[in-house]
Amino acid sequence: xxxxxxxxxxxxxxxxxxxxxxxxxxxxxxxxxxxxxxxxxxxxxxxxxxxxxxxxxxxxxxxxxxxxxxxxxxxxxxxxxxxxxxxxxxxxxxxxxxxxxxxxxxxxxxxxxxxxxxxxxxxxxxxxxxxxxxxxxxxxxxxxxxxxxxxxxxxxxxxxxxxxxxxxxxxxxxxxxxxxxxxxxxxxxxxxxxxxxxxxxxxxxxxxxxxxxxxxxxxxxxxxxxxxxxxxxxxxxxxxxxxxxxxxxxxxx
Amino acid sequence: xxxxxxxxxxxxxxxxxxxxxxxxxxxxxxxxxxxxxxxxxxxxxxxxxxxxxxxxxxxxxxxxxxxxxxxxxxxxxxxxxxxxxxxxxxxxxxxxxxxxxxxxxxxxxxxxxxxxxxxxxxxxxxxxxxxxxxxxxxxxxxxxxxxxxxxxxxxxxxxxxxxxxxxxxxxxxxxxxxxxxxxxxxxxxxxxxxxxxxxxxxxxxxxxxxxxxxxxxxxxxxxxxxxxxxxxxxxxxxxxxxxxxxxxxxxxx
Amino acid sequence: xxxxxxxxxxxxxxxxxxxxxxxxxxxxxxxxxxxxxxxxxxxxxxxxxxxxxxxxxxxxxxxxxxxxxxxxxxxxxxxxxxxxxxxxxxxxxxxxxxxxxxxxxxxxxxxxxxxxxxxxxxxxxxxxxxxxxxxxxxxxxxxxxxxxxxxxxxxxxxxxxxxxxxxxxxxxxxxxxxxxxxxxxxxxxxxxxxxxxxxxxxxxxxxxxxxxxxxxxxxxxxxxxxxxxxxxxxxxxxxxxxxxxxxxxxxxx
Amino acid sequence: xxxxxxxxxxxxxxxxxxxxxxxxxxxxxxxxxxxxxxxxxxxxxxxxxxxxxxxxxxxxxxxxxxxxxxxxxxxxxxxxxxxxxxxxxxxxxxxxxxxxxxxxxxxxxxxxxxxxxxxxxxxxxxxxxxxxxxxxxxxxxxxxxxxxxxxxxxxxxxxxxxxxxxxxxxxxxxxxxxxxxxxxxxxxxxxxxxxxxxxxxxxxxxxxxxxxxxxxxxxxxxxxxxxxxxxxxxxxxxxxxxxxxxxxxxxxx
Lengths: 253, 253, 253, 253
Known about the structure:
10 helices
């Protein structure tokens, strides 16, 4: 079973010196990027009508390659110690995050062949092909560093997020009571006012909704200033997270 | 008084292994979230007219539970060493931050039963139920970490805030003198111009007010660029605060 | 000269235990804040016409107190070792940052009494009273910490600022050539286009100017994303500055 | 060849005590800034028609000086150990980043003298003179510090950027399917929707495109909040980068 082992090595992120494995990684990454560009380009009416044939052909070839990759991964996954058991190992591999993404990447092609789907659902399904992007996470070590930092600080980040939501709810509630009588159209309910609240707290500020009363403006000013803290908190948390992660690495090496 | 002790344990944040206490915490958190969703949903006219009965019933049950929780907390608080004295301990517990929030959460229901209140005040009072959200702070350790960081750095954060306010006042004053003659409607006074100032310094930029003269735009550009510092300062302060807090913890453990 | 020494102590930031000095500090801070509120309120036409008398009286009393404070500071400054010499010490004190701010705070009142000034200049002069705000910097230790951090990192911050300006100039130059032919009104010259550039790089985004061509939007997208770095750089610089400053303090104590 | 050595020293960043070299640096920096101001001012029609002669003359003199500087740099570069070889050293210097920038700064003047260029290309070429700005990077040590930090963390920053792009593509894809049926004009394709996506993720928020359906607003809110992380990640990465770079320096000294 030397071939199986070799395929496993090629499918995994290429180690230094293994030229074929590295080239395969780059091939897959380029294929993913081309696929995503295709999904984007398809929505431009005039491009789609003109190049429909080529696009559909490219889609078919891509799905074929991705399907092959998916099946080979399932076949060879037993070389990883985690998934060593021929049956249970394979099953737990199939339900791992990476493999599920791989499945999601090809499913939008096969589902309409099996089930009869209506047009609207089909369109949403086509969009799912965008998730092929996530297949790329496998190849970057820096991505794993960032993942670790976020995982280590997930509780603090969740609390920052909760503070943001609480602020949003309270601010929108107050603003609704202040502006509703003057602008009943825009600030018609708390959920509607939350649209203003998000735009203000995140400092996006589309400008489609804003208070016009003196009290409303005062509240909006306070919320916009508190919005600064909403940026400062996660920035500070992540900064200290990187610090900790990198000093941990230095100790180990 | 074994029952009293048990109730105290259940009301407090659940320790590892105490399943009942943990489940009670989750029950209260879900009840709070449902209550807040209710306050938000009530402001959607069509939802309120349709489900009025159910909403009012849910409100009544919730207040009942929160009232019971509040009274039991006052009864059992003497198990905390801080509030050990049956009278003075209880009094100082009642005026603690957590207990006041608990009171504020139920008061909007009882006040109209005791006092005759006019409609407008009643509506504002209903909004106070949103403060039930703050009851949740009790259950998170990450929340306390963030609280500590902010408390440790409160002087520096206050100074950043003062710099922001000073910048705002000076910028709005200058802009008022520059733009008032060209746009007397929008930039009609310094307080009005401060609305532009806040939107610019916090980079919200609604776009309802902006300078049109060359000098005004130059000033706005300078203010917008200084606004970057207004974000960088608190982010830097909080980052170093987290660093300090976490290295303190590592030393203790 | 015990009185002179006592006055010096009272004028300086109050040390622990010196109740009179502390109360004097608070008195001056409140006076400054009231003055600034007055300058802001004066620009509201209806307030000024109604309360003109009171406002002018309050202004006169304030200037009297600030003038007295200024003169006493000059008289007693020789107790500071830096300004010990009766003549040269005093002169160098008069030209220190703090004393110049004190002078600027009262000058707008005295200048029109001495020189004949036209109305427009007078109005700008009134605005100078806003600089009284800067008198407050004297009383905060956290303000000095932030000042130190900014001073220590001023070179790095200046480079971040230069990068911002270079980015702004290049982006506006490119955008001018791209959008000028389609929107000759808005993007009429590079200086005009820089107004768009500032709004985009600082993420203010008023929405009064934006590209409509495909190429222009692509450039705007790149600039907006680079604008994130423009925030991240000073935030990172200041964070490491605080770290360094605080660890320096810990070593000394 | 003492003269050659002296010219080399003068062209390089001036060391302490070498007054002539320092003054030459400042002269070149001022010349660069004046040139950039000229490029900007030229696009103001009325300024250009009035001062055309002066502007063209100044441009000619500047190019003469920059050309002389460029040639002298090539002549004397052999004093740097990196470029010691008279031929290969010089060639590798010519293709170094700094020398290429120097060439780009003067090329827009010489090209039209050699080749026949059409008007549109000539206008773009004139803009290239803005790249003279990058000549200034040579003179700042803080600039090199920032360069080092970015180079050390380039992988993490690239990943942050990738996350931003992935988020942008997925968000725009979803938003296109949600809003397309209600606002077919604005959200006409995924590329068009990406213009909204960039404005939201970077919190610029021009306000020319925004969702109006409930589902669209919910998605926009989530994207705007995730946009906060898009700022927090690079800020944290750069903060930890500065920390590392500065502690490295302290160890060496």
